[in-house]
Amino acid sequence: MAQGVVQAIRNAGRDDEMFVTGVGGSQAAMEQIAEGGLYRATFLYNPNMAATAATMARLIALGEGFPELVPPEVPRLLVVPAAVVTKENVSEYEQYAFN
After folding, report:
1. Three-state secondary structure along the chain?
2. pLDDT by residue (tens digit) across 63-76?
3. Are both 73 and 93 inside the same structural domain?
4. Which pTM was predicted?
5. At what angle do helices 2-11 and 27-35 cross, to 10 degrees?
């Protein structure tokens, strides 16, 4: 979606008024971030997020918890950090980009 927003801003000739960030880390986004300009950052979510969510959903459905936690109940909030990719560090994250 961010790529569509970038194109719409360019089509409107408003590149100098705005900047865009996105989520997911496509190869096109990484390239544009490296070049500088309109697309300034993307956020990469931990690739284990979906697996963690499915495991938690299963535990909730079964009425179980995490025995290694004290207390063992399923947490109400689980924060999975996201990497912030900018022009300054894009070279560290390009390998994780998707096409």
Report:
1. CHHHHHHHHHHCCCCCCCCEEEECCEHHHHHHHHHCCCEEEEEEECCCHHHHHHHHHHHHHHCCCCCCCCCCCCCCCCCCCEEEEECCCHHHHHHHCEC
2. 787 777 777 777 77
3. no
4. 0.68
5. 50
Q: Which domain holds residue 11?
A: 1-46+81-99
For residue 37, CA distances in Å to 17, 42, 92 come to: 11, 13, 19
Q: Are residues 39 and 86 in the same domain?
A: yes
Q: What is the CATH number of the domain that holds 26?
A: 3.40.50.2300
**CB-based contact 37:17 (threshold 8 Å):** no
Q: State the Cα–Cα distance between residues 80 and 48, nearest whole angstrom.
A: 9
Query: Are residues 30 and 76 located together in one domain of the fold?
Result: no
Side-chain half-sphere exposure of 43, counting CA atoms within 13 A:
8
